[in-house]
């Protein structure tokens, strides 16, 4: 089914269709109806370039209330898609924290992702050929401006809660700075206000692995896939940690010389990603993440955070080595109405995708309009001479530990 609207400011077409596969992300069968908003006027990007045409894929769950006060907006992370129930099944669905029977839930696919929105393998209207290497840099700010197009199309003027983890959290923060009055509450999980040199270094190492694959920009059916496998193996070391691997990949047979579980696990993760994700999208989105800086074009990162007026829940994962808890403490320190919470998880950065019970317990008061904002200062940042620090919890009555 194709339904068209004419809009004086943004001529566009929206397609609603049952989607069973993604053209450039095969092996991802979908049963959720995905909608597409296509903007047929130039979409100017933050760096001065523009896309002649922009398509944004998104999904919705539930019904917008007559008061339009039940919107939950979920921003997804690096290799996820617009079907939040697919990658966050412990949080999205009937009887879950984000229940479609109560809330109107929206998740839009990032520009640059191969899951339906405009990306490097999309056709460039100016040439009739795929963008390929010429696909421009898409910043987090550009992604948010695309989300705003979907917001306008859906008639959303108020968002009860916007939530995102990792790269999704970067989008939520940027949006809360760009349009503070839109949000009642935001929840930021395992994310940061400016991407760190540490995070950029991990991304660059992955890009180096991909670019070392001589097939990358060829027409071979498996072009770039070997590089993407290696990149994912590198990424896993930042998504998990020493403790995770000790518990899950320890060898029972102490006399083995080779064929270790940890080796097999790395190869498995690389193989799994290359089956479902596009290598050019991976390159593009990793650069998008590196570009994240709330302070760019503004007075400072701190000044940008102070512009956020929503109640903010900031959640860190104690074992996260990619987005360490110091980054969440920094965010909470500078948002006027913020609460910082830490989850003690063995899963490292991936804890924001796995720790459903803890996340639900922390987010629910904000979702239900009963946020408690007095937890901002209950964690103490211990500074060390070498510049590193860690967060400790004071031994005070009533302090909650995870």
Structural commentary:
The protein is α/β, with parallel strands linked by helices. It folds into two domains: about 1-195 and about 290-390, Alpha/Beta hydrolase fold, catalytic domain (Rossmann fold); about 200-290, Orthogonal Bundle (Rna Polymerase Sigma Factor, Chain: A). The protein has helices at about 85, 140-155, 165-180, 195-210, 225-240, 240-250, 260-275, 280-290, 300-305, 325-335, 350-355, 355-365, and strands at about 1-5, 10-20, 35-40, 45, 50, 55-60, 70-75, 105-110, 125, 130, 160-165, 185-190, 310-315, 340-345, 380-385, 390. The strands form four sheets. The chain has a ten-stranded mixed β-sheet, with helices on both faces. Strands 4-5 form a two-stranded antiparallel ribbon. The longest helix has 16 residues, at about 260-275. The chain is globular and about 60 Å long. The protein starts with a strand and ends in a 10-residue tail after the last strand.
Shape: globular
Count of DSSP H/I helices: 12
Structural class: alpha/beta
How is the biggest beta sheet arranged? 10 strands, mixed
Return the CATH class of the largest domain: Alpha Beta
* DSSP summary, beta strand count: 16
Strand order of the largest sheet: 1-2-3-6-8-7-11-12-13-14
Sequence of secondary-structure elements:
EEEEEEEHEEEHEHEHHHHHHEHEHHEE
First CA to last CA: what distance? 48 Å
Helix percent reads 25-40%
Low-pLDDT regions: 1-11, 17-23, 383-389, 394-402
Write down the domain tally: 2
| CATH domain topology of the largest domain | Rossmann fold
CATH A-level architecture of the largest domain: 3-Layer(aba) Sandwich
Radius of gyration: 21 Å
- Give the full name of the CATH homologous superfamily of the largest domain: Alpha/Beta hydrolase fold, catalytic domain
Strand portion? 15-25%
What is the mean pLDDT? 89
